[in-house]
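Q: Got a minute? One more chain.
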Amino acid sequence: MNKYRTHTCNELNKSFNNKDVMLSGWVNKKRDHGNLLFIDLRDHYGVTQCVIEKGNSSFYEIEKIPLETVIKVLGKVIERKKDSINLDISTGEIEISISSFEVLGKTKELPLPVFSDQEYAEEVRLKYRFLDLRRKKIHQNIILRSKVISFIRSEMSKYGFLEFQTPILTSSSPEGARDFLVPSRLNPGKFYALPQAPQQFKQLIMVSGFDKYFQIAPCFRDEDARSDRSPGEFYQLDIEMSFVEQEDVFDVVEKLLNNIFKKFSKNKIISEKFPKITYAEAMLKYGTDKPDLRNPLLIHDLTKIFHREDVKFEIFKKLVKSGSVVRAIVTKKTKDRPRSFFDNIDKWAKDNGASGLAYFTFSNDNGFKGKGPVGKFFSEDSLKEIMKITSAEEGDSIFFSCGKKNELENFLSIARDKICKNLNLIDENKFAFCWIVDYPMYELDETTKKIKFSHNPFSMPQGDLKTIDFTKPLNIKAYQYDIVCNGIELSSGAIRNHIPDLMYKLFKIAGYEKNIVDEKFSGMINALNYGAPPHGGIAPGIDRIVMLLANEKNIREVTMFPMNQNAQDLMMNSPSEVTPEQLKELNLIVKK
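A: Always. Here it is, folded:
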């Protein structure tokens, strides 16, 4: 028999009545009722209530031990009285009458409470992460993460995918983020890079003749932290498939995500067949390529309205003449909202760096008009044209703003979320997935005014390769796609460019000459010259999937040992300085 326990803290029920048992775990709570002391004993599996009488020789000793002490108790299972049954725990019908106990692990004074899920300072939580992980909610999040990963592995095997591991020490490549570099002792002055993603290796797996690959892959990027992005490292479900088109990838991912979210959440999936939204449409209607489709508000282009003679809103008309655009958001049936509702949104816009949000309500009281501060600048005909463009009706309101296209898209994306929140329009118990497709192959760098890749440089351009006009690169679209859920990007993917001559041509447009491509991507460009199949893939983020399933707003809550905002591990004091001897071995000198 195990010397620490006969059962775990979730196993016992009234069928064990009068049985002698032994449990081990942490002291979760204590309640002193004078002649009786109740102890909630907790382990990984659950909680069992234990009780000791004052007449027991161990009473005063166990009374003094602090919470989170690890103890072993011996005792007898007894049924609880009906009025003391706790249906919130699986062992709530019984308790253990303690005959003796033993301290297995002492504890110092706790820097944060374990039995409570109350918010606590990030610095304390991360420094004492091992305590933070004992707390019920985050403990359950990490268990959920493990179950999700196990389920994914099982599903991918069912779909005919094989799991392979790709190298962690590799070469640096320009993939959009900063690399983490590792100095080589055996090759002085040279460095490995930790992979930002297994991009080149998974393509090489396809060239090697394997048909379907997946991996729960660690990825390393020296990026700033965000609520949905961990600094340093993260995990993704890396997928690659041979002899596929875009739709084949979509079919696999939709099936997988539907199965995951149905199994691990009670929330409803709005559409199991994910809608496809072009990048251009997403930027126009939502102001972002990461739209939350639970939000019903849409953005409309009203630029042409301000060319009309019967529109007298001169501020916007002058801006439109100089190249600005006008975009608007319609809110349904808001005519009875108080003036403060509209003014608060306008104030919010100004507080967030915009010139404000002009607004009025379509009103038919005493004649058709725009009711609000700027409604007087619009004729009845112009109002009706606005209604036609935006599908607005009498009683609806409209917020609009004017500015440079890129800046306005970004601002109205945030404004759309703000207005939606104020109107309480989102159903938090739903998941809304969508594909964003038809990304431009290139974009113009606002600073250098040079052409650069907009997304993944290894993507296949759309269209007949014999007739694509490479002299107009900003018109070229790529077989690139993102999967988005509730406003969170889960993944990017693409059908890959497997043709070496085409790759040289595309990279040259972005400023990479043939010798640079051969140097930076030597392994892959060489392999593509030896019979490469058409292939494509995607890599949904594990951390973000679990974050959505756990209904958490910050990715830290589903990560076992996250870093802080400055990419520091406060628990392990990392990063840290190294000794002069270590630097000497690596032929390095640190200049402070």
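A: The chain has 16 helices and 24 strands.
Q: Perfect, thanks.
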